[in-house]
Amino acid sequence: MQRDIWMHKVFLDVNVIVDFMDPHRPRHQDAVTLLQFLLLHSYEICITEDMLSTIYYISKNKEKTLLFFNNVILKKWQVLPFGQKVLDLAVSTSLETKIDLEDLLQCLCAKANGCHILITNDDSFYDCGITIMTTKAFLQAKT
Known about the structure:
- The chain has 143 residues and is an alpha/beta fold.
- The radius of gyration is 15 Å and the shape is globular.
- The chain has a 5-stranded parallel sheet with strand order 3-2-1-4-5, with helices on both faces.
- It starts with 9 loop residues before the first strand and ends with a helix.
- The chain has a single domain (5-142), classed as 5'-nuclease (Rossmann fold, 3-Layer(aba) Sandwich).
- It has helices at 14-21, 28-40, 50-58, 62-76, 83-97, 101-112, 135-142, and strands at 10-12, 45-48, 78-80, 117-119, 131-133.
């Protein structure tokens, strides 16, 4: 039986995680609702390993962030490495197109690791051939 596209791996952009962790951000509640939905419906949640240092760096509460890493991300999510092929392609594409390297790395890594949906709150995210949706658009499509 073929699985519905909504039941595949979901890649979360760093801004979604930061929105979830910081209750003062405007999209915090959307991120909370999204993560509740993903967990309730047993989605496979993926991020890249570099996101841990980015999230930690911008976090105001370092201990809370480390506890979230330890108790949630490292135990229940997939933390994906880029690998040489993704790094090479992202850097060369960024040089050629002037597209943001971070977006390229995230999207190409998600694609290389079988993610079918990338959820971001960036309005102009690089399209690498997988479905890209905002948090709000994903939640609206699921209700």
